[in-house]
Amino acid sequence: MANNTPAGKQTGEKMRFFKSNTQLVVVVTTALVLPVVIISAMIGASGSRPRATDDMSSEVIEARIRPVAGFELQEMKKGGPARTGEEVFKGVCTGCHTAGVSGAPKFGDKAAWAPRIAQGLDTLLQSATKGKNAMPPQAGGEYSDQEVANAVVYMANEGGANFEAPKLEEKKEGDE
User: Fold this and answer.
1) Environment class of 153 (CB within 10 Å of its CB; exposed 0-12, middle 13-18, buried 19+)
2) Transmembrane segments in this chain: where (predicted)?
3) Alpha carbons 94 and 86: distance in angstroms, whole number
4) Would you kindly state where each structural domain of the chain is located, as residue ranges?
5) How far is it, in rounded angstroms, from Cα 138 to Cα 95?
6) Which fold has domain 85-159?
């Protein structure tokens, strides 16, 4: 009768993956320790260090926040010549009209400006000074009516209009 078992194996003895308990311990220990060693080596190589305490000073924090905040407090201009439409546009209007935020017509987009230009300069001026949709009065800036008119004419003309900025009389203190 032929024996179908591998040489040296007794009948009924199971085949094992590990030949000894020592081999099993070595493999399990390696499987647990090796990933920890690799991860700690990767963390050390990345140069990650705790922040120095001077990184938390108010000046350093303010310097990190300033680019995100994106505005500077300025004194309201009194007297002197009115700022040009381009200056006012760059100061406040560009924030929405360059990207078309909240439906604002993009600067220079003739198709978007055409229906607004068709309503006339007076309507555009009223929308800009009083506010319309998402745009607050004077786009949230502190500009004279003349400066707002200059900006509206500048943007509308870049959008295909041929307006001339009106010469507006400024209100004096106490006038309403």
Assistant:
1) buried
2) 24-45
3) 10
4) 85-159
5) 13
6) Cytochrome Bc1 Complex; Chain D, domain 2 (1.10.760)
